[in-house]
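Hi both,

Apologies for the delay on this - the queue was longer than expected. I finally got the NAP-bound model through. Below you'll find the protein sequence and the ligand SMILES exactly as submitted, and right after that the structure tokens for the full complex including the ligand.
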Amino acid sequence: MPNRADHAAFFAPFEAGTRARPFVVAQLGQSLDGRIATLTGDSKYINRGAALAHLHAIRAHVDAVVVGIGTVLADDPLLTVRLVEGKSPARIIIDPSGRIPVAAKCLTRDGVPSFVVCKPEAELPHGITTFRIATDNTKLCSHAIIRTLGEHGFRRILIEGGAQTISHFIDAGCVDRLHVLVAPMIIGSGKPALDLKPIHDLQDALRPRTRTYILDDGDVLFDCDLRSPA
Ligand SMILES: NC(=O)c1ccc[n+]([C@@H]2O[C@H](COP(=O)([O-])OP(=O)(O)OC[C@H]3O[C@@H](n4cnc5c(N)ncnc54)[C@H](OP(=O)(O)O)[C@@H]3O)[C@@H](O)[C@H]2O)c1
């Protein structure tokens, strides 16, 4: 975990979020070679204790945590705050067609609200609260998702994964901060952490202003300010 002063610096920008313009942070836990899972989807655990505690600290500083349905089907995460003190954020699952199993842990009735973001025509089991987003039949509009979450009072939003979900939000320019937690581990094959729109020239690559922190057990945290080019 970054020290106390770093900790305060980290979370101060989150407070800028408003209902009209929520603050959006995305996190990626990846290997040295930029993978977030093996080809078979095994991803537990690339990062070690301090990085996992950092992820829980981010959850404790946001109003909503967002994951794609791919992550729910692969990992069945609970998405609550357990490794640090703090309140669990609302859970938001992007599931355009309604593929979520009713027994998914993120739908547990434990007092933490859960919402599914889906297409208008998606059929979901009774009892699941939905945010229905109009679509042009390809992707759900990332801006419309963030706008809807803001309108429901979520001022600070964590996009926790997986790769496709984070990539859509970054491509749309919706992410303010990206926290990349790099573990000194080489997987060598498997799912890439990001899959952004192709660019031709390196000058078009994102090169955000970035601060780095070495965490207690050797993982490195890159705190990238996507609103400020280096
Ligand atoms: N290391 C980490 O930090 C981390 C964190 C989380 C997950 N993971 C790993 O990541 C893997 C899952 O990632 P993934 O990329 O395969 O899946 P994902 O991003 O979790 O989910 C992708 C799916 O979510 C839906 N979706 C998300 N954004 C959308 C949008 N804007 N418009 C329409 N649909 C949208 C689509 O569902 P439909 O296909 O139904 O349309 C899409 O196929 C797992 O192996 C998991 O273990 C790693």
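Main takeaway for now: The pocket of NAP is lined by residues 28-29, 36-37, 41, 43, 46, 67-71, 74-75, 94, 96-97, 99, 139-140, 142, 160-165, 168, 191 (CB under 6 Å).

I'll put the files on the shared drive as well.

H.
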